[in-house]
Specification:
With about 325 residues, this protein is mainly α. It has 15 helices and 3 strands.
Length: about 325
């Protein structure tokens, strides 16, 4: 493939990288992808032709990684595929196009002006200073403004959203968007809503941990197992005491499976059991019934055996 740009002397030339690259693209791209882009940017100045296999060897990267990097930058619009290779886009021009695309984005100043209040504008500036060292990319202003309008978050929730992503070391759009979607689906708009959500999540984590420990599960619970636990605790209203009875029952029968435990708890829910006493009374009644059944079977067996012995006695003489 051929990479083209103006040629200069290698000794006196330099490769310029716009500041917008560091705020807009670098945080989300992997190190290897950045490595590939920088080297292609460097080569483009000299109209050099280079094959993907050569890139792989020069950069000490495996072939699929280089392919993935090229595909990534293509999707970002930075690499444009041509018949004879690739052309590198002007990043600054790309960002200007994004900023002034009608009905989609706006400039940072417009985004602040269009905010519903001075509090919202202050929140955006706080995000800039706290999480981007005061050099937040202009496109972030647009996204934040759009998220305010889409989700109806108050200013504290928006700040918490970025703080959450920052603490998770995932300060990029895809993660923040996914988190915002999840919060919105849980009807979060105010900070009080968010606190209640976190409290509920903490309770879930505690009970998930207790159940995993009781069952000696040294792994992360699956999504389906977590959904079962939510059903037991939130839909059925069962606390750990009742759940533990089911866990013990499963363990004693060598059936430590979530489907078996779920069957027990669902059956108790259908029987309208609400307390530990309800469950234990029911289990005791089953034990009594089984005991009586065994006694009857034993008596029947003894009677049959006694009759047989008496018949045998007829032939003793």
């Amino acid at each position: 493939m051929k990479l083209s740009r103006n040629e200069k002397s290698l000794i006196f030339s330099s490769t310029e990288i716009p500041d917008i690259f560091f705020t807009e693209y670098l945080p989300e791209a992997s190190g290897n992808f950045i490595k590939v882009y920088f080297y292609m940017l460097f080569l483009s100045k000299y109209n050099k032709e280079i094959k993907i296999n050569d890139l792989s060897k020069t950069l000490s990267l495996d072939f699929p990684t280089v392919q993935d990097a090229i595909k990534y930058w293509e999707e970002k619009g930075i690499l444009l595929k041509k018949t004879d290779g690739y052309t590198l886009s002007d990043i600054q021009e790309l960002e200007i196009t994004k900023l002034y695309s009608p009905k989609v984005t706006s400039s940072p100043e417009d985004a602040i002006k269009s905010s519903q209040s001075q509090y919202r504008a202050k929140a955006i500036e706080n995000i800039n200073s706290q999480f981007f060292q005061g050099v937040m990319s202009p496109s972030w202003y647009n996204d934040i403004d759009l998220w305010f309008n889409k989700y109806g978050f108050d200013e504290q929730v928006m700040l918490a959203l970025f703080s959450y992503a920052y603490d998770k070391r995932a300060l990029h759009r895809n993660y923040i968007q996914a988190t915002a979607d999840a919060w919105s689906k849980n009807n979060i708009t105010t900070f009080n809503d968010l606190e209640a959500y976190f409290e509920k999540q903490e309770k879930r984590n505690v009970i998930n941990s207790k159940i995993s420990k009781k069952l000696n599960l040294y792994r992360k619970l699956t999504t389906y197992e977590e959904e079962d636990i939510v059903k037991w605790t939130e839909n059925y209203g069962y606390d750990m005491e009742i759940i533990e009875i089911a866990l013990k029952k499963a363990s004693s029968n060598n059936k430590v499976r979530f489907d078996y435990i779920d069957t027990l708890l669902t059956d108790w829910h259908k029987k309208d059991f609400h307390t530990v006493s309800d469950v234990n009374t029911y289990l005791d009644s089953i034990k009594d019934k089984d005991k009586k059944t065994k006694q009857i079977e034993k008596a029947a067996f003894e009677y049959t055996q006694s009759t047989f012995d008496n018949l045998e006695a007829l032939y003793d003489n």
